[in-house]
Amino acid sequence: MTEECETTNPLLPHTPLLLSCFVENSNFLKPEEFEEHHRACFDGAIGYYETMANFGAAGGISEVKGLLESEIEESMDMYKTLNESRNPMSGMETYFLPLMIGFMSFLLRWVADLTCSGWSDTCKAGSDFFAQIYSVVFIFMVIVGFTRMQQCRQYLMNMKAMFSMVSGNGVLDMASVGGGKKRN
After folding, report:
1. How much is the pTM?
2. Percentage of residues in the chain having pLDDT higher than 90
3. CB neighbours of 45 closer than 8 A, spacing ≥ 6?
């Protein structure tokens, strides 16, 4: 990737390469890879600017160099946000952590039921506690699932309204985007 950074457009040396990187590779880049690529492109763009900017007042050249650096950093922030939105593991903690807690409590309850005798109140209380934990986790996962279903439903309703408008099946008002009725 480094050699590509040195041969970019002289007017916008940084932006086209980052854009092509994200268009060609629509997958998530690890933060280390992203930062390495940004650093190589940044150094290539500044190096190219320094070789080309040899005419004029030194103050003007350094002022434009500062503008270039700030524009590159702004573009990097935008591409970083775009890259983070492509992270397939983003938001998995919402599911993974409760499922791990539920699984561990189920496993601990099973061990407690298997190893403890029936006359021990402590074992019975521990078993009941673990059962309550994985019951709460199950209810939490049901709530999260319904929330996701509602978001998907809203997205599909918006897509349906958009296709209806594009195909010319009628004029839609704003209420129909949210699931209302069409007007003629």
Report:
1. 0.46
2. 12
3. 5, 8, 13, 14, 68, 72
Q: Which among 151, 153, 180, 152 is positioned nearest to 170, based on CA atoms?
A: 180
What is the SS3 string spanning the chain?
CHHHHCCCCCCCCCHHHHHHHHHHCCCCCCHHHHHHHHHHHHHHHHHHHHHHCCCCCHHHHHHHHHHHHHHHHHHHHHHHHHHHHCCCCCCCHHHHHHHHHHHHHHHHHHHHHHHCCCCCHHHHHHHHHHHHHHHHHHHHHHHHHHHHHHHHHHHHHHHHHHHHHHHCCCCCCHHHHCCCCCCC
pLDDT, tens digit (0-9, with 9 covering 90-100), for 105-123 = 999 999 988 888 778 888 8
Q: Which string of b and e fits 57-83 if b means at least 16 CB within 10 Å?
A: eeeebeeeeeebeeebeebbeebeeeb
Q: Which two tokens mark 19?
A: 């854009």
Using alpha carbons, select from 148, 158, 184 the residue that is nearest to residue 169.
184
Reported as a single tens digit per residue, the pLDDT across 16-68 is 555 555 455 567 788 888 888 888 888 888 888 888 888 888 888 888 888 98
